[in-house]
């Protein structure tokens, strides 16, 4: 099992951590939501907890809870700019369908 991020995502996360003044990476999770059934949750991680599974990518930690891990296994987190929009993009091999707005997915 592995979860990674691109160099672009790592640069963006590191800049944000530097601006915040603390943090060791990101916490990723999946929650029930949206029209396709599941959505991604992402937040800064300042510390680990015993139930976290930790992955290191470009010197940063990606923390995932045990419940979310099967849905995120193999995912690569990217940071993309498309026109005037920018944000994180989940390249998830487990996703079989996404809603039209891209906010939720199904496995």
- The CATH class is Mainly Beta
Instruction: State the end-to-end distance.
Output: 17 Å
Largest sheet: 4 strands, mixed
So, the CATH homologous superfamily?
HesB-like domain
Provide the low-confidence segments as ranges: none
> CATH architecture, please?
Sandwich
SSE string, helix = H, strand = E? EHEEEEHEEEE
Q: What does the oligomeric state look like here?
A: single chain
User: What is the typical, i.e. mean, pLDDT?
Assistant: 89
How many separate domains?
1
What does this structure look like?
This protein is of the alpha/beta class and 107 residues long. It has one domain: Hypothetical Protein Aq_1857, Chain: A. The chain is built from 2 helices and 9 strands, in the order βαββββαββββ. It has helices spanning 7-20, 69-72, and strands at residues 4-5, 25-32, 38-45, 52-57, 60-65, 76-82, 85-91, 97-98, 105-106. The strands form 3 sheets. The chain has a 4-stranded mixed β-sheet. It has a 3-stranded mixed β-sheet with strand order 1-6-7. The protein is globular, with a radius of gyration of 14 Å. The two termini are 17 Å apart.
Features:
alpha/beta, Hypothetical Protein Aq_1857, Chain: A, four-stranded mixed sheet, 2 helices, 17% helix
